[in-house]
């Protein structure tokens, strides 16, 4: 027989005894507030563009947001609805979206807009940008200032440049090239902010074959032209297959990229497929040219690379090695070049139409490529063959018209399509974090010649 201690008697207080007067008073104050906020949340449209990710956490690429101007239906694509350009601010929070028509049969007379969303704002409305600029024509290129998050340059299909200070909500326009005789007269194809000893200059390239250098005068409140370069058709290699009939006519510029280590060195690409190494310090005048306004035009070209068999769509210099840059062309090839070698070191050929490409800001030899069938590929040039990842951006084939990676936040990228939608994507860590072998490989490619 065992002996145990008697169990203590449990006394359960009446239900009313557990309710303190202070708790009752708190609930009287809090419940109406909570109910009011729940009712506001139910009516809110703040997350209309957010798509819940139901896949596993290790999904390589996630769609975070879909941004679309209110009044632009998702299932129609009318004139001016296409996303024509994208740019991330230097803080990595704001994305600028330019719109335009896909094709122009004559002079552009469309009225379009440029919209700005802060993707990190708590009150983000994906159908309503926090700021919108009304434009006199279709936007063809836009570029935020590299250190001033409120300064934005916009290039138009008409060739006009506009400079904005977005912090001035009432009158953000700082200056324009409208009325400047020496300005561009064809669509602006590229913009670049160039750091010089006297501050930043704005460099513009256009399909009129000119690369112009501008400074903003605060005293005169306008953009002033300080230097002019010109590419001639005679400089485009015959092997490109699209050389103009006259060697002394202009060759349209379609791409521009400056070296990260040497501000005097840059590359340009042409409509005919030519890829050229150039010097900003050049003072060589254009020897012969038809037409007017030849005074002051300089020839920047110092050497020529093996051309694309079609228009050059993009150029980008590596920030991991001064000799390396990439190109993409309408021949559906993406290439890696060494500035010391004429032929490309590496190349990737795609079956689908290439519409845009961009180097990863954090992985030296990873490139993102979008296509006319709505696919996005991630290629690693250190691994030959199949892409690292492929995803279809839309259920139905839809042309991806713009691509921009976020230099400040490498895990974010934005794509725009032919129906006016911008999709913000998040990349998994494996596609953002550099691998130890990549730096060694790009140093090898940049330092020695290879047959690829």
In short:
GO terms for molecular function: dynein heavy chain binding; dynein light chain binding. This protein is mostly beta strands and 452 residues long. The chain is built from 2 helices and 29 strands.
Describe this structure in words.
The protein has about 450 residues and is mainly beta. It has one domain (about 60-65, about 80-445): Methylamine Dehydrogenase, Chain H. It contains two helices and 29 strands. It has helices at about 20-45, 435-445; strands at about 60-65, 80-90, 95-100, 110-120, 130-135, 140-145, 150-155, 160-165, 175, 190-195, 200-205, 210-215, 220-230, 255-260, 265-270, 275-280, 295-300, 300-305, 310-315, 325-330, 335-340, 345-350, 355-360, 365-370, 375-380, 390, 400-405, 410-415, 420-425. The strands form seven sheets. It has a five-stranded mixed beta sheet with strand order 10-11-12-13-17, with no helix packed on it. It has a four-stranded antiparallel beta sheet with strand order 1-29-28-27, with no helix packed on it. A four-stranded antiparallel beta sheet has the order 2-3-4-5, with no helix packed on it. β28 and β29 form a beta hairpin. The longest helix has 23 residues, at about 20-45. It is globular, with a radius of gyration of 27 Å. The termini are far apart.
């Amino acid at each position: 027989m065992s002996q145990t201690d008697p169990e203590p008697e449990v006394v359960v207080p009446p239900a009313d005894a557990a309710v303190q007067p202070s708790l009752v008073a708190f609930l009287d104050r809090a419940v109406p507030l909570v109910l009011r906020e729940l009712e506001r949340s139910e009516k809110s449209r703040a997350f209309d563009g957010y798509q819940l990710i139901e896949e596993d956490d290790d999904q390589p690429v996630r769609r975070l947001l879909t941004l679309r101007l209110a009044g632009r239906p998702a299932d129609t694509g009318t004139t001016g609805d296409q996303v024509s350009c994208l740019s991330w601010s230097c803080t990595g929070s704001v994305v600028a979206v330019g719109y335009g028509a896909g094709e122009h049969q004559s002079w552009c007379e469309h009225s379009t807009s440029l919209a700005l969303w802060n993707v990190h704002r708590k009150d983000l409305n994906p159908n309503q940008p926090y700021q919108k600029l009304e434009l006199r024509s279709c936007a063809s290129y836009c570029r935020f200032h590299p250190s001033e998050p409120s300064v934005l340059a916009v290039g138009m299909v008409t060739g006009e440049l506009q400079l904005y200070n977005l912090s001035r909500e009432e009158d953000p326009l700082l200056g324009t090239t409208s009325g400047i005789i020496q300005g561009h007269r064809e669509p602006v194809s590229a913009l670049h902010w160039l750091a010089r000893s006297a501050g930043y200059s704005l460099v513009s390239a256009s399909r009129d074959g000119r690369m112009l250098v501008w400074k903003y005068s605060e005293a005169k409140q306008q953009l002033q032209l300080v230097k002019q370069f010109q590419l001639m058709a005679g400089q485009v290699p015959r092997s490109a297959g699209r050389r103009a009939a006259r060697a002394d006519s202009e060759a349209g510029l379609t791409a521009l990229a400056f070296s990260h280590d040497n501000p005097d060195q840059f590359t340009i690409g042409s409509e005919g497929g030519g890829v050229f190494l150039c010097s900003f310090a050049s003072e060589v005048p254009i020897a012969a040219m038809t037409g007017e306004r030849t005074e002051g035009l300089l020839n920047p070209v110092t050497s020529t690379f093996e051309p694309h068999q079609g228009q050059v769509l993009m150029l980008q210099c590596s920030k991991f090695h001064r000799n390396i840059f990439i190109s993409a062309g309408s021949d559906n090839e993406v290439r890696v070049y060494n500035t010391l070698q004429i032929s490309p070191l590496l190349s990737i050929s795609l079956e689908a139409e290439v519409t845009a490409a961009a180097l990863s800001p954090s992985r030296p030899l990873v490139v993102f490529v979008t296509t006319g069938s709505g696919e996005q590929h991630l290629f690693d040039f250190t691994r030959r063959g199949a892409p690292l990842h492929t995803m279809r951006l839309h259920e139905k084939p839809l042309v991806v018209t713009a691509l921009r990676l976020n230099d400040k936040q490498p895990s974010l990228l934005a794509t725009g399509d032919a129906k006016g939608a911008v999709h913000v994507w998040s990349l998994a860590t494996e596609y953002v974090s550099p691998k130890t072998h990549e730096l060694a490989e790009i140093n090898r490619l940049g330092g020695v010649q290879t047959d690829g």
